[in-house]
Design brief:
The chain is an alpha+beta fold. The protein starts with 11 loop residues before the first strand and ends in an 18-residue tail after the last strand.
Length: 296
Amino acid sequence: MPERDGYIAGVPCWVDTSQPDPDAAARFYEGLFGWEFEDVMPPEAPGRYLTARIRGGDVAAASSPPEGVPPHAVWNTYIWVDSADETATKVVDAGGTIVTAPFDVMDAGRMAVCADPEGAVFSIWQAGRHRGARIINEHGAVNFNGLHTHDVDAAERFYGDVFGWGILSLGGGGEFWTLSAYGDHLERERPGLREQTVAFGAPAEFADVVANIVRIPKDEPERSAHWDVTFAVDDADAAADKAADLGGRVLVAPVDVPWARLTVIEDPQGAAFIASKFVAENRNLANPEHVPAGAA
């Protein structure tokens, strides 16, 4: 797949994982996905930031926990914006909170850490030298981010105000965040994309999708709202077996869902993620009751 060079505002563009031991995390993900890592922090820096690459293209990173934050392993989603400062203001105006105020990351870019009104944490990224994930939608690379929420209506108001997102519902096939400008952008990059999308059995609007939505059941109030990350794999069953061999834990055994076969994995330090293989033949399946597409 051609290498990406940036995104448009409102599109998830990067993921990293905060880990108590970034080097141990690197060993796990190197074994699972074949990633190659480089510490991009200056020698005198107090923390580590290990950028993961496939064929030399950035795909993700493993980092030390931010200063003052408990050493909890988690995957983090970043959304591309034109201005971190202006978007942070929108977050507050829409009822969200700023966890970490906008700051410069050397010459890589400018970012802020935010939370939506329900507490789901995400970061915003104003690009400098770092242009987000260069490789996506292939084995070992990100192919989806998803919001788990108790209140989709409230989330729609918040993310609509901040990023201009709407919702596409496919019934038994799930719900998705859309940005019409994204589909238009992709169509310019890959003419005929919307027609190809329809040929796969999805509506043309699916080209506008930027993330998916997982409704947290009302009878599970203890589950917190959060963002997740899905990595594409060539074989979900093999990924689950390999993760277990490397010291990870399979939270959800491989299962068929609309458009995919996926498994939910927890790495050895506790960060959960989804590994998913695209399966066009599964397009008419309904989501399993307790394993919605994108669950983690």
